[in-house]
Amino acid sequence: MFEVGEYIIYGNIGVCKVLEVKKMAPPGTKTDKLYYELEPAYDKGRRVYTPVSNEKVLMRKIVTAKEADELIHRVKEIDTLQIRDEKLREEKYKEAMRTCSCEEWIRMIKTLYLRGKSRQAEGKKITSSDARYLHLAEENLYGELSIALKIPKEKVEDFITKRVETQG
Questions:
Q1: Please, what sign has the CA dihedral across residues 98, 99, 101, 103?
Q2: How many of the other CB atoms lie within 10 Å of CB of 47?
Q3: b (16+ CB within 10 A) / e for 13-33
Q4: Can you list the positions of beta strands (E) in 68-168?
Q5: How many CB atoms lie under 10 A from the CB of residue 159?
Q6: H or E stretch including 39?
């Protein structure tokens, strides 16, 4: 169970702060269940209520500062997504997003960045699907690392780039 004040990843909503754990009766029932009251970190004022026992949506603690540092240190070693069938490209992106894994988000960002560069070299633009998934992966990764490393979200990309460049 997560503690009040803790930051967690809640499915595709991303980083949320646990505001409260309380008993509630879902509409149409008479039975009280334990619920988390969550506030998305980048959508202040919005509330999300989910059963503590929810197994349909992936919930996990955010990475620690140490884990974030280790992850950034390994960025160069993380492979891109292997997509052999273009028809399955979007499905691969969806699968990677559903994992709610920082490593998978990095894998996606690297894949989409390199694909965009390749398309650009051919005189083509990035596809709207690629642009959408690149944005989603960046938002999720940078949002989580921002909280873990206690740096503003808009500075995370530069922080990672500088760290990777100094590794040689």
A1: negative
A2: 12
A3: bbbbbbeeeeeeeeeeeeeee
A4: none
A5: 17
A6: strand 33-40
Region 28-47 average pLDDT: 91
**Which tokens is 96 given?**
């990677």
Residue found under tokens 């390199």: 114
pLDDT, one tens digit per residue, over 1-23 is 999 999 999 999 999 999 999 99
Identify residue 34 by its one-letter amino acid code: L
- Tokens read off for 30: 């008479």
Instruction: Give the pair of three-digit tokens for residue 124.
Output: 């083509």
Pairing of strands 59-61, 48-51: unpaired
Question: 37 falls in which pLDDT band (50, 70, 90)?
Answer: very high
- Tokens (6 digits) for 62: 């955010």
pTM for the full predicted model: 0.90
Which residues have C-beta within 8 Å of that of residue 2, sequence separation ≥ 6?
A: 8, 18, 21, 36, 59, 61
